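Field reference: "sequence" (input) and "structure" (output). Example, Putative hemin transport system permease protein HrtB:
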Amino acid sequence: MNLLHLTLRNVLHRRFLSLLTVCAVALTVAFIVLLSLSRDSVEQGAKSGYGPFDLVIGAEGSETQLVLNSFYHIGAPTGNIPLAVLEQAKLDAGTDKAYAMTTGDNSGGFPVVGLDPEYFVTRYGDQRLQSGRLYAQTGEAVLGSHVAKTLGLQLGDTFTGAHGLIEEHESGGEHDAEESAEHGAHEEEDAHGSFLYTVAGILPPLHTPDDRAIFTTVDYAWAVHGLAPEDREITAVLVKPGSLLGAHDLKEALDGQGGVQAAYSSKAVSDVLNAVDQGSRLVGIITALCIVLAAITILLSLIAAVGERTKDAGLLRLLGKSRAYVWMSLTSEGLLLTSVGLLSGLLLGHLGAFLLQDRIFAEAGIQLNPYHWTQTHVLIVAGTLGIGLLSSLGPAFRLYRLHPLELFKS
C-alpha cells in the first residue's frame, strides 16, 4: 500500500482528533506570525519615525513624551517654548535644517500639526503628493493618506478643528463646574468652530506616523486664538544637524535654558523599544506555553493512533512490510498534521494582520505589513516541523521496537 495513501486514510479515520491537532498547530503558528509582524513593524516604524531629525527641542519635561508627540503624534506635548528658540536653532553653525512645529488641536480625532511645508522635502525628498499641492496660506491643510481615507475628505473640502489631541464628546454626569470655566470652554469651542481648514493636498502613503496627521501652517494656532506677535509660541523645533558634533553642541547650548530641553530622537526611541522588549517577555512566555500545548496535542493524537492501529501495524509486518515502513507511516502522519496546521497558521496569521492593519494603525500608529515575509518565517517553519517530528518519534518508536506477532496479538 502506498505510504501517502495509508497516511491520508489514517488521518481521515480520526477526523475529529486530526482536526483538533491541526487547529492547535494553526492557532499557535498564527499567533507567533502576528506577534512577529507586530514586533518587526514596531522596530521598523520606530527607526524610521523621526527621519533625519536627530534632535528635537521643546519644553522641559519627559524627553520620550516630547519625541513621541513630535514625530509619532502620540500623547500630549510637554508645553510651549518661545518662538525665538527657532531662530537660535537656525543660526547655530551645527544646524542644517530647523522647522517649528505647533500642535494641540485635532479634527476627527487626528492631530492637527502646524509645520513648515519644506519639512516634507527634507524628510521624504521631492515626492509628489497623491493629489493637490502643499499648503501655502493660513487655513490650507494637507492630509495624511490614512486621515483622508478615514474621514472621506477630498480636495477643496473644508473642516473644523477642536482643542485637544483627541476628539472629545459630551457625556452625561454631574454639572458642577464653575460658570467662568464653562464660559471659557464655550469661547474656546467657538474659536475653533469658526476657523475653517481647506484641503489643499493629500499625501501619498508614507508608511510613517505622518499618514495619520493633518498638516497646516505653523501660524494656524495663532490665527485660531488671535494671538498678538509678542504672545506667539511654538510647541517644538525639529532639527536636522549638519553633523553629530553639531547636534551635541546645539543640545549643550539649549538644554535646560529658560524652560527648554533638547532631546536626541534616537535615545528616546531606544528607551521606548527597551520598554517594549521587557513587556514582550511575558508574551514570549505565553507563546512558549502555546507551543508546548500544540506539541502535547500532536503527541496525544499519535498515542491514540498507536492504540488504534497496533493490530494493523502487526498485520503489515506479517505481510512483509519493514519496521521502517511502519515507523514512517506513523511519523508521516504526525508531519502531515503538523504541515497542514503550519500552512493554515501562516495564512491565518497574515490574514489577521491584513484585517487588523487599519485598526492597529489608527489606535497605535503601528503600520502592519501583512505581505511581509522575513527570516523569522523560516525559523517558524523549521521549528514547527521540528516539533511535529519530535512529537511523532516516541509513539512511532514504540511500534518500531515490537515484534510482528506481539503487535498482532495485542
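The chain has a mean pLDDT of 80.
Residues 61-255 form one domain.
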